[in-house]
C-alpha cells in the first residue's frame, strides 16, 4: 500500500506572500528613486528579481501595485507608533517611545519617506494617494495630541502652551525628522534625532550658562 510522501519546504501560500512582499519593497524603492511616472512595471520586476509576466500574477497594473505598497506602509506605521505610545506611561516616555519606534520603522522601510513624497507629488489623481497620505499624517498628529492632552491633565504642559499648539510643534518636528532621513546619511540622521530628543527633554542646553 503506497503512502503519500510528505510535502517538503514552505507552503505555497507562504512563498506567495514572500514574493508579494518582495514586489512591494521593490515598488517602494523604484518609486522613491525614480518617481511615480518613471517607475515602470518592467523596472519594478527587475528590482524584485522576477519577470514582468510573473509580477502580473500578483498585481494587474502599476496603479494597483503602488496603491498596495502605500496601504502596506499605512497599515504598519500608524499601529506601531500608536502601540509604542500606549506601552509607555509618562508624557516624555510616550514621546520618546514614538520617536524610537519611528526610527525602527524607518530602518525597516528605508524608502518609505521618499516613496510617500513621490506619490504625493505625482501619483495618479484617481488613486487618491496624496489625500490618503494627508489622512495618515493627520492620524499621526492625533497620536501626538493624545500625549499632549495627557500632559495638560497632569499639569506638565507649560503655562504658555496649549494642547493645539504643542501638538502642532511636536508633529512638525516629527515630519521634519522624517524628511531629514531621506536627505542625509544615517549617522547624521541619528545624531539629529538624539539632539531633538535632548531638546524635548529640556537637556539640549545648559541653562545655567545661557544669558
Automatic annotation (TrEMBL):
<dbReference type="Pfam" id="PF00440">
    <property type="entry name" value="TetR_N"/>
</dbReference>
<dbReference type="InterPro" id="IPR009057">
    <property type="entry name" value="Homeodomain-like_sf"/>
</dbReference>
<feature type="DNA-binding region" description="H-T-H motif">
    <location>
        <begin position="40"/>
        <end position="59"/>
    </location>
</feature>
<protein>
    <submittedName>
        <fullName>TetR/AcrR family transcriptional regulator</fullName>
    </submittedName>
</protein>
<dbReference type="InterPro" id="IPR050109">
    <property type="entry name" value="HTH-type_TetR-like_transc_reg"/>
</dbReference>
<dbReference type="InterPro" id="IPR036271">
    <property type="entry name" value="Tet_transcr_reg_TetR-rel_C_sf"/>
</dbReference>
<dbReference type="InterPro" id="IPR001647">
    <property type="entry name" value="HTH_TetR"/>
</dbReference>
<feature type="domain" description="HTH tetR-type">
    <location>
        <begin position="17"/>
        <end position="77"/>
    </location>
</feature>
<keyword id="KW-0238">DNA-binding</keyword>
